[in-house]
Design goal:
The complex is a heterodimer. Chain A is mainly alpha-helical. Chain A has 3 domains: 2-39, no CATH class; 62-159, CBS-domain (Roll), CATH 3.10.580; 165-295, no CATH class. Helices cover 50% and strands 11% of the residues of chain A. Chain A is built from 12 helices and 7 strands. Chain A has helices spanning 35-39, 43-46, 62-72, 91-100, 103-109, 138-144, 161-192, 198-212, 226-234, 239-246, 250-268, 276-295; strands at residues 2-4, 14-16, 76-81, 84-90, 127-128, 147-151, 154-159. In chain A, the strands form 3 sheets. In chain A, strands 5-6-7 form a 3-stranded mixed sheet. In chain A, a hairpin with a 2-residue loop joins strand 3 and strand 4 (84-90). By secondary structure, chain B is of the alpha/beta class. Chain B folds into 3 domains: 2-177, Rossmann fold (3-Layer(aba) Sandwich); 185-193 and 275-419, Rossmann fold (3-Layer(aba) Sandwich); 196-269, no CATH class. In chain B, 36% of the residues lie in helices and 19% in strands. In chain B, the strands form 3 sheets. In chain B, strands 5-6-4-7-8-3-9 form a 7-stranded parallel sheet. In chain B, strands 12-13-11-14-15-10-16 form a 7-stranded parallel sheet, with helices on both faces. In chain B, strands 1-2 form a two-stranded antiparallel ribbon. In chain B, strand 1 (2-4) and strand 2 form a beta hairpin. In chain B, helix 8 runs antiparallel to helix 9 (233-245), helix 9 (233-245) packs antiparallel against helix 10 and helix 9 (233-245) runs antiparallel to helix 12 (303-315). The chains are: A mainly alpha, B alpha/beta.
Chain lengths: 296, 420
């Protein structure tokens, strides 16, 4: 797990949860700092962490290869002779060649497409390196339906458009969900507290923090922060406004809001990388709020 | 004092002896260390590893540990400036790409792998093809793990809490540290009674979730749900949501809203009383103004519970800091020293108890949930002063949790339970 912390003395430090040094792996113990590959999104991070690289030999029949693809949920299989990559067999390469076969050819050779060897259907995919950036390869990914990672003699992984989509979704979804949560809270407060009451309620709920810092208390929802929404919602005296929609258990809802607030702050201030449990917490809260918002 | 590079580390005599055994060029290939928790096995092995690397700059060193210990090894090795790296699938791919035909595993740094990752076929084969100068396997539960260790290793060190010298293993240097005499501990108990709505919820859960006549895997999952109920509404909500989203666990993929467990979440929203939290508040928060400067440790089994309790403490005006797997060592240290000076509540998951070095700094340790292995995780690590240890307990909760764990006194006779 890697995380970014605030720049110090004009330098960016990237640290893992275990505070390890940023080390690019190299042979014979030479350590080479590679901040760039840690800071920027590279192909290595886009390949699924536990990708199971399944390859087939050129002599395998197309029908058998398709069976493997269906069973494993793959759209393609790299075809290897020993360790050398010959090409890629895919649903697309199979249909392209099959579509060209005439009944006359099939009668003449006495075969159907599924009985042909996979090397009859090969497509050549481009190779990329684990350290390459993902953005420049977008076009190539679109053209060929995928890319191979490594080189002709050493296949390291396969990169599909879906892998990239999942990766980007994984990065973007917390931001999207937090913004949905924030907007829903705003809508919820607006639905139950009228504009005239809001300044008084804001004064009561936020005075403690704002007066201590000698700052003006915000009086409109647009001026308020996530923490302000949380303070208004969590306050015992205000709960009567919300209980019809949110239920009776104020402490439970407040605790959930607190958790989302702390995740939001860590996310927006790039304090750390979110964990699976963080993702789960914001996704659950977002789904729950969606349900509640539908009742407004 | 033992010096590792510019750093000096204080080792106890028996720890030093173990380190010397590992470093000695003569002696058996296999060194087996068995010792009770809290005696510094892992710490000594880390020192031995760092010294080994300092003396053999080109050594190829492999550490195989449970996933949860990876960070601990890294943190400790970093503290003595010993070059190390965790090998996960990303790092492995980079190594593969750089492979020039010789072994892909670099020398001159400590390579740390989680045991689960090392078991995957590709990694296992690759590890087996390399020649290792030192392999350390931490938290060994059975000697069979030696069979899974890469064969070509000049020295293999295995660490365990409970291994006996066994004639079936190859000749080895078996080191056993005698456990210190057990001290008497007192664990106090706050008993609370669940409210009617909470009891209705637990009945609903018991009806929906069975522990009898179900396959072992499902029984375990069900047990986790009941344990989450015992812990906090937030922990239960997360557990139930997880089950609903991945409803294949329950064998009934369907619309989440119609899932039988969805009613639990609806029910949670309408329970106003949380008697466990109330008992905690009464004990820990009612006299907050008298507790200025005192540091409390709250331990729970679930991250959600920590957030839940933390929100309550903050509402009462208390200071909190959470120590979880996502907390960096600096943040942890900052929180600890700030709390040492000003007091407040440090909240930590069971799994992170290991990261706390000095339990004596706490005035009170509040076990919000029962600890699965109270002695090994906590009591064995207490050195001199005894903080007040408090456990929250309710007869209304699912009782399997308390059986044989820490409060019935059968397994840990030295613990005396008293009511507050």
């Amino acid at each position: 797990m890697t995380r970014l912390i605030a720049p110090r003395i004009g330098q960016l430090f990237l640290m893992s949860s275990t505070d390890r040094k940023v080390i690019k792996l190299s042979k014979a113990g030479s350590e080479e700092s590679d901040l760039a590959s840690e800071l920027f999104h590279r192909i290595n991070r886009v390949i699924p962490e536990n990708q199971d690289l399944v390859c087939v030999q050129p002599t395998m029949l197309a029908g058998q290869a398709i069976e493997i693809m269906c069973e494993r949920g793959f759209s393609q299989l790299p075809v290897l002779q020993g360790t050398r990559v010959l090409g890629v067999f895919s649903f697309r390469s199979f249909s392209k060649v099959s579509a060209r076969l005439t009944s006359q050819q099939m009668r003449q050779d006495d075969v159907v497409p599924g009985e042909l060897r996979v090397d009859e259907f090969l497509e050549n995919w481009d190779f990329v390196c684990t350290g390459d950036e993902w953005r420049p390869v977008l076009e190539r990914l679109d053209t060929s339906d995928g890319l191979l990672v490594g080189n002709k003699d050493k296949l390291i992984g396969v990169l599909s458009p879906m892998d990239l989509l999942r990766y980007l979704d994984n990065i973007a979804s917390p931001y999207v969900m937090i913004s949905e949560i924030e907007m829903s809270l705003r809508a919820l407060i607006r639905a139950v507290i009228n504009e005239k009451e809001l300044p008084d309620i804001a004064d009561r709920s936020l005075a403690h923090d704002y007066n201590r810092q000698s700052r003006n208390i915000p009086h409109t929802l647009e001026e308020m922060t996530f923490e302000n929404y949380r303070s208004i919602l969590s306050r015992k005296e205000n709960w009567a406004f919300f209980e019809d929609i949110l239920g009776d258990n104020r402490k439970y809802i407040s605790a959930r809001l607190s958790r989302v607030k702390s995740i939001r702050n860590d996310l927006f201030h790039l304090k750390r990388e979110l964990t699976v449990s963080d993702h789960e917490a914001i996704s659950n809260f977002r789904d729950w709020l969606l349900n509640k918002t539908e009742q407004i | 004092m033992t010096s590792i590079g510019p750093k000096s580390i204080e080792l106890l005599p028996f720890q030093k002896e173990f380190v010397e055994t590992v470093l000695s060029p003569i002696g058996e290939r296999l060194v087996l260390l068995s010792a009770a928790p809290g005696m510094g096995k892992t710490f000594s092995a880390i020192c031995a590893t760092a010294l080994f690397l300092a003396k053999n700059r080109d050594a190829r060193i492999l550490i195989l540990v449970p996933k949860f210990l990876v960070w601990y090894w890294q943190e400790r090795l970093n503290a003595v400036d010993s070059s190390n790296v965790e090998i996960d699938s990303y790092a492995y791919r980079e190594l593969l790409e750089k492979d020039d035909g010789d072994s892909i595993w670099p020398t001159g740094k400590v390579l740390i792998l989680s045991r689960d990752y090392a078991k995957t076929t590709a990694i296992k084969n690759s590890l087996n093809s390399a020649c290792w100068d030192l392999i350390v396997i931490d938290e060994v539960s059975s000697l069979r793990q030696f069979d899974h260790c890469p064969r070509q290793a000049s020295r293999v060190v295995m660490l365990s809490c409970n291994l006996q010298n066994d004639e079936t293993i190859p000749s080895c240097n078996f080191i056993e540290w005698e456990a210190p005499a057990k001290r008497n501990f007192q664990v106090s108990r706050i008993t609370f009674v669940r409210s009617e709505p909470e009891i209705s919820l637990s009945k609903m859960l018991a009806d929906l979730i069975s522990l009898d006549d179900v396959p072992t895997g499902l029984r375990y999952i069900n047990q986790m749900t009941l344990e989450a109920y015992n812990s906090s509404p937030l922990a239960l909500e997360t557990n139930v949501s997880r089950r609903i989203k991945g409803s294949l666990i329950d064998g009934i993929p369907q619309n989440p809203k119609q899932h039988p467990l969805a009613q639990i979440i609806n029910c949670l929203e309408n329970i106003t009383d949380d008697e466990k939290l109330a008992a905690f508040s009464k004990f820990a928060l009612d006299n907050l103004s008298n507790d200025v400067g005192k540091t409390n440790l709250v331990v729970a089994n679930y991250l959600d519970t920590l957030h839940y309790v933390s929100a309550e403490i903050e509402f009462s005006g208390g200071r909190t800091a959470l120590i979880t797997g996502a907390t960096s060592p600096q943040d942890r240290e900052t929180a600890m020293s700030s709390f040492d000076a000003n007091g407040g509540f440090i909240l930590c998951t069971q799994a992170m108890l290991r990261s706390i070095e000095n339990f004596e700094r706490f005035e009170r340790i509040i076990l919000y949930d029962p600890l699965r292995n109270l002695h090994d995780q906590l009591l064995a690590r207490l050195k001199e002063a005894d903080p007040l240890i408090v456990n929250l307990y309710s007869e209304d909760d699912f009782e399997f949790l308390y059986t044989g764990v820490d409060l019935d006194g059968d397994e840990l006779e030295e613990i005396e339970v008293s009511e507050i």
